[in-house]
Amino acid sequence: MKQGLVWVLFFTVQLGIAQGTTLITKEEVIAKVKESNNTLKMAEQDVLAAKGDFNQTNAILLPNISVSHTGIATTNPLMAFGSRLNQEILTAADFNPDLLNDPDQIEDFATRIEIQQPLLNFDGVFQRKAARAKWTATELQSERTEDYIDLEIEKAYMQLQLSYKSVEVLEKAKETALENKRIADNSFKQGYLQRSDVLAVEVRVTEIDNQLQYAKSNILNSSNYVSVLMNADSNQLLKPADSLVILTESYVQEHLLENRKDILAMNAATEAYRQMHKADQMAFLPRLNAFGTYELHDDEIFQTNAKGYLFGAELKWNLFEGSSRIGKSQKSRAEYDKSKLQLAQYKSESQLELNKAKRSLEDARNKLKLTALALQQSKESLRIRTNRFGQGLEKTTDLLLAETQYSRKQLEYYATIFQHNYALAYVRFLTKE
Known about the structure:
single chain; alpha+beta; about 425 residues; 4-stranded antiparallel β-sheet; 6 strands; Outer membrane efflux proteins (OEP)
């Protein structure tokens, strides 16, 4: 039963591979990712949100203007007298004590235009600087996200190349195994081989079929991941237009670059915390604001029979608000100090990561040379043993061992190419300005 399920899965995967395959180049993947990737779109929205926070601080520079229209009806003595006064209809008869104490109902419709203009707002100035630094940090982090997505594209595309290359190697290995099985069957019929030797060859064919099934599943997995990066249909089967080759190396920086975008973003974030701490300190200083109103009154709606204005300035100094401002300043100071420590720690960890990446690249270089040599040796060994087996001079087990070794070395060689290329791409990512 279990074996039957394996074969059903095998043929299902083969059917998926056989369906329409779309050839795609890395340049096309990059273009589609730049256009549609959700991570990049979210990073753009983060920048817009930070820009919105900065634009809110325009309130310390620009006036606050409001317009209202109010209608009332009253017999309240004070309100009635004031309404008649605002409407400029007050007469000497209105000073009659009986009318003052028990006025008739009066209607008043008032249109009020109010303006408030900040003049001196020290804490607001530093809050604006903090918002600007946060906006800068978000922009830089968004650009670094693009660099990371570029690295993911490299990795995903190379994984897709490696998956197809693995299938190619295993399909050739299967052809070789089937040919060996044909020779073994003929030799068995002629009495040159025992049944156990034929079974050993058949086991090898089955092993390759199993490896091939997993390799084709990896094609689907890799294709789906590339589709997710492009925000495209994940059921679409993709195939790289080019093969996996060794990338050429260029000069690699020895030390961490201070102008790397994520580090600049951390610097900007630290600056934002510094400005916020200054803003909290400036909150102890007074504020100076100008204000003005222009009112229009009438006993009919939306009419402007009487007009009047008022303007002035207010110097306000909150000397003590419990201990809230002191605590707020202490908190912002602690956050600023913490951000400086985080920046230093991030730089240290980034340098450590760069050192590890460079060592991994060097290890990949050495492994690439060794696997290339091992592949050449196993290929020659397989050629010799295959010729001897055809002449009846080689044991079946030795041939199977040589064929298995050659197939494994091929897969190892291409996997090493992937490791080398990704290590190089990662070092470039860590040293990119």
